[in-house]
Design a protein that fits this description.
The protein is α/β, with parallel strands linked by helices. It folds into two domains: 96 residues, D-Maltodextrin-Binding Protein, domain 2, CATH 3.40.190; 183 residues, no CATH class. Helix content is 65%, strand content 8%. It is built from eleven helices and five strands. A five-stranded mixed β-sheet has the order 2-1-3-4-5. The longest helix has 35 residues. The protein is elongated. The N and C termini lie far apart (49 Å).
């Protein structure tokens, strides 16, 4: 067994873990305890006058919560929802209003749009009809499977990166990167097999889920390993903060990112966790619409982690060469 730590060190660790409770509980609860929409994209069919009336009425009660886009007809609105340009939309009719939603894009957004439709119907004094254009299936009734798939890939990948950093230093760079590549490929294959074929939460998209899963697993490993190679154990802590704590809390897995507080909403769009979840949702429920941007974000983080690892690998060689040049001549 390893040697026991000193009482002082154990006391400091105890205080540190208590402080960690404050950080974890504060971030997770602070971001999601009172979700309110911000600039949630909504389409309107009925002309500019109708859109202006809706915008005026909504802004007076819920300023900044929705961003309206006008469409010439119901068909174009439906296509915009399927293309992930808007979350839903209101179709103005003289005798009744129609609110079209897509619960597969997020239940929080679906609920907010339904409430918006009720407000608009009250403004025009007409009954409201609702239609879920892209509903969630029974296999993913709460729309959380993309989030759980992400988390199931993230934690093992983070731990694998820690193991490579701590115990793989004796291997060559080619070996270490080869192991990371093999792990990422296997993680994607097994992860997709689990959520698609075995559990059946996200069925009928095995190959796409495997490819996305492999990319995300590689991202989590490379970012963690790259930061660790540059900053040592501080890098591991930073990776855990970015990917596990902040990344998960602002990922948009449990609530849409438009419902997060301002600061967390902004960074959530740029972290790989939320980008992966968006890519999975868009792939499974929207035929891959508007997925390329999210995949680009994930890939960019993977490249960044790889660059950090390569730079850290090169720096010791640069230092040793510099020492050889500047070392004083031996005296006789």
């Amino acid at each position: 067994m390893p040697a026991s730590l000193s009482p002082r060190t154990l006391v400091l660790l105890t205080v540190a873990f208590i402080a960690a409770i404050f950080v974890f509980a504060g971030i997770y609860t602070g971001t999601q305890h009172n979700p309110m929409p911000h600039q949630l994209r909504v389409g309107v069919v009925g002309g500019d006058l109708v859109a202006t009336l809706i915008n005026t009425g909504v802004e007076s009660k819920a300023p900044g919560e929705f961003k309206l886009y006008t469409y010439p007809n119901q068909a174009s609105l439906r296509q915009a929802i399927k293309d992930r340009k808007v979350y839903g939309g209101y179709v103005y009719e003289k005798n009744a209003g129609l609110m079209i939603t897509a619960s597969a894009a997020g239940k929080a957004a679906n609920t907010a749009l339904t409430l918006l439709g009720e407000q608009v119907a009250a403004i025009f004094k007409v009954p409201l009809q609702t239609q879920d254009l892209v509903p969630l299936p029974e296999s993913d009734s709460q729309g959380l499977s993309s989030y759980t798939y992400q988390y199931g890939l993230l934690v093992p990948s983070f731990v694998f990166a820690v193991l490579i950093f701590m115990f793989g230093y004796g291997l060559s760079l080619v070996w270490r990167l080869g192991l990371i590549g093999a792990y990422s490929l296997g993680a994607g294959i097994v992860g997709a097999l689990t959520v698609d074929q075995i559990v059946g939460a996200l069925p009928h998209h095995y190959f796409a889920l495997a490819a996305l899963g492999a990319l995300y697993a590689a991202t989590a490993v490379l970012v963690t390993y790259g930061l660790a190679r540059v900053l040592s154990y501080a890098g591991l802590a930073l990776a855990g903060l970015l990917l596990i704590l902040v990344g998960n809390s602002v990922s948009g897995g449990s609530i849409n990112q438009e419902f997060l507080p301002g600061f967390f909403r902004d960074i959530g769009q740029a972290l790989p966790n939320g980008a992966f979840i968006r890519s999975v949702r868009n792939t499974v429920y929207f035929d891959g619409a508007n997925t390329h941007r999210a995949m680009f974000v994930v890939a960019l983080w993977a490249v960044g982690g790889l660059v950090l690892a390569l730079v850290a690998e090169a720096l010791p060689g640069l230092r040793s060469r510099r020492k050889k040049v500047t070392a004083p001549e031996p005296t006789a």
